Amino acid sequence: GKDGIYVPPRIGPAAMDDSHSKDAVRKEKRLLRMATENPYFKEMIDDAADRPEEWKETAGDESKEFMAYMRQREKQEKAEEELFTRAPVTKREKYMEKQMKKQLHGLQGLTDGFDLGMNTLLDGEKEDDGGSSEPRRQSAGRRKHQKGGKRKRH
To answer: Are 87 and 79 in contact, with CB atoms under 8 Å apart?
Structure first.
């Protein structure tokens, strides 16, 4: 350069490949995620990799909402582990978790009285052992909270 002043070389703009553009990367990630979530593809991948079958304890957890919720929870747990902190659970998250559990265990109430019915069938004419199936109630004389009642001062 002139007069001892540094002039950096001029660089022209470079064209990016479509394969590495943000949209292409996003699309690729989405397709990969969809493939790994799809039970059919998951089974094929596991067979090809000679992995053992994955046993599930719950049925009906293939819904999109549930999978999205599980992804979000895994991401949150990963972040918590990396930062050694616990993220506060919002009321909305608690509500969503409750709804998911209801969805998963929708058939849970069908077998509630099964044990009681089986016991009466098997025991036949045996007398009741004194254990009642109804929850115990507090005696009428004692109440937990009384409105307007004065507290004793010590």
So the answer is: yes
49 belongs to a structural domain: yes
Percentage of the residues of the chain whose pLDDT score is greater than 70? 55
Q: Residues 63-78: pLDDT tens digits?
A: 677 778 888 888 989 9
| Range of the structural domain that residue 45 is part of | 23-55
Query: Would you say 46 and 54 are in contact if contact means Cβ atoms under 8 Å apart?
Result: yes
pTM of the model: 0.32
Dist CA 41 CA 47 (whole Å):
10
List C-alpha distances in Å: 146 to 1, 126, 149, 150: 92, 43, 6, 9
Residues of the chain with pLDDT under 70: 1-2, 16-20, 53-63, 105-152, 154
The interaxial angle of helices 22-37 and 39-48, nearest 10 deg, is 90
Instruction: Note the pLDDT of residue 65.
Output: 74
Same domain, 46 and 63: no
Domain count, the chain: 2
Number of H helices, E strands in the chain: 5, 0
Does residue 104 contact residue 66 with C-beta atoms inside 8 Å?
yes
